[in-house]
Specification:
The chain is mainly α. The protein is 34% helix and 2% strand. The longest helix is centred in the first third of the chain and has 30 residues.
Length: 390
C-alpha cells in the first residue's frame, strides 16, 4: 500500500514538473517574438582604430559641448542634441548658426541670412548600434548615419555638421578652411593640448581625425540597452503591461515589422514613403540620391524625439500612424512623388485607427531615461557651454 501511495505521489510530482516545464516553455515562446527582436547588447563595439577609454569619452564630451568647434563660436553639437531632449530636440527643423535658445525655444537672431537645417535632428542615443541586424551583429565602421545613410560610422559623421554652413560653420569661414581653423584654435588652448596629448600620444595629437574620434567615442557611450521591452525580451514577462503586450501584437499584425525590426527597430534601409514636404524649408527635399527615399528611423526613445519623420512634419505618433494608414492605399501624400515611386512595402501596412492608441502604448516600452544627462559646468574654451542656448 505504501509503495502504491509512493508511486502515485511520484507520478503527481512528475506531472507537476512537466506542467511547470510546459508553462516555462510557453512563457519563453511568448518572449521569442518571431526571432526578429532581440535585446540591445549591453556592451558596445568600438572600432579597432578608436578603442574606448574613460579619458577619451571625457575629452569627447567637452568637445561635444564646446562652441569652439563652430565657425562663429556660437553653436555646439549639444545645441541641437541636448540631454534634456534625449540628445535630440523638439524642433521640426534645427536652427544652428546664428541661433539662440534651446530646442522649441530656439530662434534665429536678427538680422539673419542662415537657412534652417533641412532635416530633423536624429537622437544620438544608441547611434553606437547603427547597422545592427536581426542577429545582433554589427560593425562600427559600417554603421549608416544620417537620414540618407551618407556616412558609415560615428567617426565619419562627426565632421559633417561642423563643415555644414547652416549647422555649425557659418559664412565667415569656408568649408575648405574650417577644420584647419578649428585645429589651430584648440592648439591655442593649453587645457585641450594636455587632454589631447594624454588621450592621443601622437606627435600631432590635435588633428581633425582625433577630434572626430574623441566625439565619436563619447557618442558611442550614450546607450539605453535596458528598456522595459529589453527586460521583457530577457524573460521578465511583467516588465510590460498586458495593454503594451497587446500593442506589440497589433504592431506586428499591422506589418510594421517589415521595416522596424531588429534590436533597434529599424532595417536601416532607404524607403520612399511620400511624406509631405515641410513648407518652412522653402524647397522639396529629394532625399537619398534624389529618389525621395529616407532611412527607417529607430523606434527607441520616441518620447524624446518628436516631431517625427525626416522633416519633423508630424507632431505626434498618432499623426504618424494615421499617415501610414493613408499610404497603405498606394497613393502618395506628396504631390511631387508619384504613386509608382512609393515603396511596395507601403501596401502591406494594415493599420486601423482603433488600434493606434494601443500600439503607441507599446512604443512607450522602448523609452529609457537611463543615460548620461550630466552637463559640464564649463568647457576649456570658457565659451558658453552648449553654445548660445540660454
Amino acid at each position: 500500500m505504501r509503495y502504491k501511495i509512493a508511486t502515485i505521489s511520484a507520478s503527481i510530482i512528475i506531472c507537476l514538473l512537466a506542467i511547470s516545464s510546459c508553462n516555462q516553455k510557453e512563457k519563453k515562446a511568448k518572449v521569442d517574438v518571431n526571432s526578429v527582436y532581440t535585446p540591445l547588447p549591453e556592451k558596445v563595439i568600438s572600432p579597432k582604430n578608436n578603442p574606448s577609454s574613460k579619458e577619451k569619452i571625457s575629452l569627447g564630451k567637452l568637445l561635444f559641448y564646446d562652441p569652439i568647434l563652430s565657425g562663429n563660436k556660437d553653436v555646439a553639437c549639444a545645441s541641437c542634441h541636448h540631454p534634456e531632449f534625449g540628445y535630440a530636440e523638439a524642433l521640426d527643423l534645427s536652427i544652428g548658426v546664428n541661433g539662440h535658445g534651446l530646442s522649441s525655444n530656439r530662434k534665429f537672431k536678427i538680422p539673419n541670412s542662415i537657412p534652417l537645417v533641412k532635416r530633423n535632428a536624429h537622437t544620438i542615443l544608441n547611434a553606437a548600434y547603427n547597422g545592427i541586424g536581426i542577429d545582433g551583429k554589427y560593425h562600427p565602421l559600417k554603421a549608416p548615419m544620417f537620414w540618407d545613410n551618407r556616412e558609415q560610422s560615428l567617426e565619419d559623421q562627426v565632421l559633417g555638421p561642423i563643415q555644414s554652413l547652416e549647422e555649425m560653420r557659418g559664412t565667415k569661414i569656408s568649408a575648405d578652411a574650417i577644420l584647419d581653423t578649428l585645429v589651430n584654435r584648440l592648439k591655442g588652448i593649453p587645457e585641450y593640448v594636455k587632454l589631447f596629448d594624454d588621450v592621443f600620444p601622437d606627435k600631432n595629437s590635435i588633428s581633425k581625425e582625433n577630434i572626430a574620434k574623441a566625439i565619436a567615442c563619447f557618442e558611442r557611450s550614450l546607450t539605453t540597452p535596458n528598456s522595459r521591452f529589453d527586460q521583457f525580451l530577457k524573460g521578465d514577462l511583467d516588465a510590460i503591461s498586458q495593454g503594451e503586450k497587446d500593442g506589440f501584437e497589433l504592431f506586428k499584425k499591422a506589418k510594421c515589422t517589415d521595416c522596424h525590426n531588429g534590436p533597434m527597430f529599424t532595417d536601416y534601409k532607404i524607403h520612399v514613403l511620400g511624406v509631405p514636404d515641410n513648407e518652412k524649408l522653402g524647397y522639396s527635399d529629394t532625399g537619398y540620391e534624389k529618389t525621395y527615399g529616407f532611412r527607417t528611423p529607430t523606434l527607441r526613445n520616441l518620447r524624446y524625439t518628436a516631431p517625427y519623420m525626416h522633416n519633423g512634419k508630424f507632431k505626434t505618433l498618432q499623426q504618424v500612424l494615421e499617415f501610414y494608414e493613408d499610404i497603405a492605399s498606394g497613393h502618395s501624400e506628396n504631390p511631387l512623388i508619384k504613386d509608382s515611386q512609393l515603396d511596395t512595402l507601403n501596401k502591406g501596412i494594415n493599420l486601423k485607427v482603433k488600434d493606434m492608441s494601443t500600439i503607441i502604448s507599446f512604443f512607450n516600452t522602448l523609452n529609457s531615461d537611463n543615460f548620461d544627462k550630466e552637463i559640464p559646468r564649463e568647457v576649456p574654451s570658457k565659451l558658453p557651454v552648449g553654445g548660445n542656448i540660454q
